[in-house]
Amino acid sequence: MAYSSYYIKKSRRGLFVLGIISLLSLMIGGTVFFRQVGRENGWQKTKGINRLSVVNISPHGFEVVWSTNNPVTEEQWIEWGTQKGVFTAKQNAEYINGVYYTVVTGLTEDTSYHYRVRTGTKTYELNALVNTTVRTPKESKEKPISPAYGKVIIPSGKPYANGLLIYEIDGYYPLAVFTKETGEWLLPLTGLIDKKSNMIQSAADTVSVSLKLFSYPDGIVRTTVLQTRPLRQAITAGISMRLAQLPQEGSVLGENVRISSPQLKGQPRIVYPKENAIIPGNAPLIRGVAVASQDVLVLIQGPTKQYSYRTKSDEKGDWLIKYSLALGAGRYTIAATTVDTNGFPLTLRRSFSIIKSGEQVLGEATGSPTLIPTPTITPVPTSTSSIPNSTPTIAPSIPTATPPVTGGGMSSYLFAALFCLVVGAGLVLAF
């Protein structure tokens, strides 16, 4: 073999190796470059959202609540804008009791806004939707009505504090509020937005409403708007029920009411003890009314012990708890579970106190203070937030500082990618 032939083959082999290196440099550089650019522009998607709801929509804002598979591990926020795919504003989320919560304000009435949920370098995706749209309604004047309010407890009977309650009237966009430390909640029923017309309009008292806790999606309470002003029956987290129709008399949160309509006489209720009664002795009378010949399960939660009893109503619907245990001094809560006249599960609650022997009650015996509506309801702007604070004002808000929007900038990854691209292109041109 001639030396020239050997040299030509060796030279071609070198060119081939350099060509492979050039192509690899171009591929690596291009991959890193476009991946980093995609991160900067939110191209990456993740399906980490479990639930997401847009609540408290108003002419100049809305609120977004969601939960994810990786809570608290990364900062999360909302981006929005008036053009699809173009996001010009940003607001960081608050993390409250397992729920991310963001308030978007300063919007224009009767305008569509596109928004997305972001974390780190990724955009969250829910049901194959990355960018979603909400349209603000037009300004409108409406006659104010009394607010909806009530109380939420956990199955043990303790207050459910800082829990997100979703209040959704059939045919209207949902409202939301966080419960107080006492488990109490209050929502102004102003600024209700009809889903079909996207107009602000009041809802009739007879319209059905669903109440559910965001962190307990399996439990739904069904009733009417009127029955939530106030909601006398405490909501139990994770329990679904349809509340009975009761006349709007008496005080809030479970006080025994006077039955004035023949159609309501068969509805289950606790007759004794009265709400927040203070009872001397250790054997209070516990009796009530239920649907005829139905089982009634009664739980008595005391300061240190819990007692469980099962009884059955007679042919007239009356039931009575007979027990031999003496109750010590302290505050007690009764939970009587049965079914209503429609066959739906129903839990009735009542609180009372046992006083020590020798103690006297001066004046009228009352329990601890609860949410009490003021005689005059002041209209509240619909754009305010609904996070509660220490005072029972209507729809209080928590101001959240708007963080600076992250800029573009060239990171070290982009420099490395550009370097690989230049080297690869140079080798290709050279050989």
UniProtKB/TrEMBL annotation:
This protein's UniProt keywords: Membrane, Transmembrane, Transmembrane helix
Protein name: Fibronectin type-III domain-containing protein
Region Disordered, residue ranges: 372-395
Cited InterPro entries: Purple_acid_Pase-like_N
TM spans (from-to): 410-430
GO MF assignments: acid phosphatase activity; metal ion binding
Keyword Transmembrane helix: yes
Top-rank lineage group of the source organism: Bacteria
